[in-house]
Design goal:
4 helices, globular
């Protein structure tokens, strides 16, 4: 699946469930929540879990958890991009150009 297909899939999937109708500030809250879950998954990968009620799996399990959490962040970013009619390709290109200009020698 390329990035355009993914962006369209997210649009349709979220619309079918009514998730695209949520206020943008609620969506930003979801993005913040998912970002925290990425941090938790990275902590588990890097230093493990230290609470007795937290179960730590294998490295592959931890990596899969991080993959899923990054997907949740990407999904929320995609919904925001869709709301403002911004293609993910344009975001990638804009980011690349910004960094290239900023750090060109």
């Amino acid at each position: 699946m390329d990035i355009r297909e993914f962006q369209k899939w997210v649009q349709l999937y979220y619309e079918q469930r009514g998730w695209s109708e949520l206020d943008i500030f609620i969506r930003i809250g979801f993005l913040a929540e998912e970002t925290g879950e990425v941090a938790r998954a990275i902590r588990d990968l890097e230093i493990g879990r230290d609470r007795p009620d937290e179960i730590s799996g294998s490295y592959l399990d931890k990596k899969q958890e991080l993959t899923e959490e990054l997907g949740d962040v990407l999904g929320n970013l995609t919904v925001i991009a869709n709301k403002y009619n911004i293609s993910l390709e344009d975001i990638f290109l804009s980011h690349k150009n910004k960094l290239s200009k900023r750090y060109s020698e």
